[in-house]
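Colleagues,

Please find the record for the two-part complex below.
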Amino acid sequence: MSDFKRFPRGQVAIVGIGCTEFSRDSGVGVFTLATRAVKNAVADAGLQPDDVDGLCTFGVNDSIAPNILAQAFGIKSLSFYVDQFYGGSVSLSMVGQATLALASGVADCVVCYRALNGRSGARVNGSGAGGGGRLPWDMQFKVSAGYIAPSQEIAMAARAHMLKYGTTSEDFGRIAILSRTHALDNDRAMMRTPMTMDDYLASRWIVDPFRKFDCCLETDGAVAFVLVRADRAKDLPHRPVLVQGAAWGGGITVVNNGHSDITESPAKPIADRLYASAGLGPSDMEFAELYDCFTYNVLSQIEGYGFADPGGVPDKLRDGAFDRASGSLPLNTHGGLLSEGYIHGLNHVYEAVEQIRGEAGHRQVDRHDVALVTGQLGYVSGYSSAAVLVGA
Amino acid sequence: MSDVTARRTIPVPDRDSAPYWAALAAGQLVLQHCPDCGRWTWPARPICSGCHGDNLEWQASGGTGEVYSWVVTHQPYAPDLAALVPYPIVLVRLDEQEDLLIPGRLVSDVEIEQGLRVRAAPERVTDDIGLLNWEAEDPAGQA
């Protein structure tokens, strides 16, 4: 029996973050984006590229691999790498994997990154498999139905939730508006004009029940962050952001026999493991950055990670429970993938680190020591991932 | 494989899944049935995910079920879908087993609701490949 309490709790820290501009057209290749973000992150950590001996990334044939990046930085032999296929569902897996590698001692300094030209290059709006090439095996059973985009799969679950719990378009709209409101004073955010419920309801259908504003942005950009063991982190410039816990693994998809109710949050199967690894529970989380490629994902994760009973999210949204300024659990404090930009979830890590350091400026939340940060909740690939980050 | 991008909705069978697509080309929905534990499996797999048995047999499905959820796609996600938008995709709970949830285009012009009775309506593309569409059991659309 797996024992998630054996996760190397708090032994590894994020010590540097870096990003590029988030835009609709970067004007450069993903290789350049990756090197910029990695250089920024390493410099932020007070380290040199020569210190790096591990690189982790993920993508769907649309990014630059660790071996190529290592060559560019003159790293002659990586001690550790992860180059995962798939999208946002594995975005937080890297944090857990890097932590295991560092805690065991096989690596000393790991950089995780994601670079994509998600708007000007291999657009993420529908292809699901990005730049072509490798397709997940199960895609043949979906494409044949014209069922080829993540938006369709998540919308299918959203409809099932509407039918079971009476969830409404306005509930999804409140999530879109929450994200937009949080993006207004964020210099990195691509969308900084206010959104009303009328704006939301008037936006065009993408995949009914999803409108345009239920869907995240397509973005060019990159984010990177640096991890070292906690004892070393103490001597570096910033407040160490400890990896208190992490979990990655199972989700729910329609090609995953055994699941018969797709309204059950795919976050649920990993939530217990995540909290066991961290030694904390939902009530300990002070803010959360939840993977929001679509509005419904946020609702489903609020349920799955234990912040509301199934069907209980709409009331909490109306009560302002997730507002940055006054909510009990400020959520997607930067505007998220819906309104800041879509760096496949790594901009959630960037924001959580800024918040925990107390460097988030206008966006700073009052209680900022413990954060839940998550990846896509696993409807599409059957994977989910998440981490609990804690200020040292 | 550049055709895959141009014609995204045509599946690319492999040796494990080929019998499924060929059966649809011949007008029939087939599923794998495990003679050892009685479980049905979809999509095609080398082993039974219930008992891990190796004896899965292709058998004709009754081909009927009811709509559990649905979406209406307005965004043309692939060139060969542009002519179809907006098109409904239904997620059908097959009568054989509660966890068999299978997506497909609904080709009947009826009002969709949860519980709508549907049956498989395979569409032949080539001798080796058919697409799985669904049609309402009652063309008038009574659930």
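The interface with chain B takes residues 125-127, 132, 135, 137-138, 140-149, 151-152, 155-157, 159-160, 163, 204-210, 254-255, 257-260, 262 of chain A (CB under 8 Å).

Comments are welcome before we finalize the supplementary table.
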